[in-house]
Amino acid sequence: MKDSASLSKKNRRRKDPAPATFAARADRHAATLILFDIDGTLVLTGGAGGRAMSLAFEEIFGIRNAFSGVPLAGRTDAWILRDGATAHGISPDSPALARFRDIYLRHLAIELDKPGPRKGVMPGVRELLDALAARDDIYLALLTGNYEGGARLKLEYFDLWRYFRCGAFGDGAADRNGLVPKALARVAACGGPSFASSDAVVIGDTPLDVACAKAGGARLIAVATGNHSVDELRAAGADVVFEDLSDTGAVVRSIFRK
User: What is the pairing mode between strands 43-45 and 119-121?
Assistant: First the structure.
């Protein structure tokens, strides 16, 4: 695997000469829906998300490092918040928790500008998105545990938000396994095609992404650019596993391989 720690600022906010119109195309006849995870799959933010969560929790409850020991990778933001609150004896019905998302997003916007380890766009991602966005038989969307506002902040920071018209997000979703049907419904509501789950391919980097795809009846292409190895992702049941997404042709072929 390429060392993602070596990713530099040149991967940030690259502007192409062509207008950012990928998200404006209807692709009403697209035959395949590609649902991308964000963290560890498209980008790494150098720990900005975790720092912002901790700062937001501390601002509300006065508890520092509240998410220490709480697993983050592959989980929805709502799930992470629930586990963090439970760990500190805070009721999931606490009205104060309703303030968390907005405060988190405020901190995230600041933390994204700070340096951090393993920060940047994952290898091959820009080239792959360009290739997929140019096709009429592909519809690009997101399937992520991030709050929708957090997903937008992260992807806009790296100039990737423009590739995606909509998707399923972690707002209020404690169970990631319900996100595939939410994504199908959201795409249709956004004016896209009506896809069946068998038309969808999830691209993610954790065993939880694998489980989510399987639960929703979609195929899963896994990439080992996050915290899990190729062997771990194969063992979890991924249909295809790549070390990274740098071989655009191989990834595209795997999308259409049933």
Answer: antiparallel
